[in-house]
Specification:
The chain is of the alpha+beta class. It has one domain: Winged helix-like DNA-binding domain superfamily/Winged helix DNA-binding domain (Arc Repressor Mutant, subunit A). Helices cover 47% and strands 13% of the residues. It contains five helices and five strands. A three-stranded antiparallel sheet has the order 3-5-4. Pfam families: PadR (PF03551). This is Helix-turn-helix transcriptional regulator.
């Protein structure tokens, strides 16, 4: 696999697609955030842009968003379809979903049970999102 980042680390220039079975460690945080957004539902580019701008509390330039979307499409993590002549819709693929799970697995592996500094907070946050009962 030959993947190189630009000087900001945002948009990779790929000589070949990433091997999604290897892992998603070649993805930037920006690209991972796009995958997270698409995990809810398929969206068109400007809707993704708005979600990212709300998260970053800053403008996201088209010149940053669309090359990253194109890279994710090329890597097989996102599927691009045409809604109409001017609008494309982007959807998370099974490989994109697996990349998200792989990243979460890595994050969760860093929280060691018995070390309350992080594990308890992580458990509380997960419980709050899934609505589990702690009793």
């Amino acid at each position: 696999m030959n993947s190189h980042r630009d000087s900001r680390g945002d948009a990779p220039t790929t000589e070949s697609s990433i091997d999604t079975e290897t892992d998603a460690t070649v993805l930037t945080a920006f690209q991972q955030n796009i995958l997270v957004i698409l995990s809810e539902e398929a969206m068109y580019g400007l809707a993704i842009k708005r979600e990212l701008e709300a998260y970053y509390d800053a403008e996201v330039n088209h010149g940053r968003l669309y090359p990253n979307l194109d890279s994710l499409v090329e890597d097989g993590l996102v599927e691009k379809s045409e809604l109409d002549k001017r609008t494309n819709e982007y959807a998370l693929t099974a490989a994109g979903e697996q990349a998200l799970f792989d990243h979460l697995d890595w994050i969760f592996s860093k929280y060691v049970p018995g070390q309350p500094a992080g594990a308890d907070q992580l458990h509380e946050r997960i419980t709050a999102y899934v609505g589990g009962d702690e009793s």
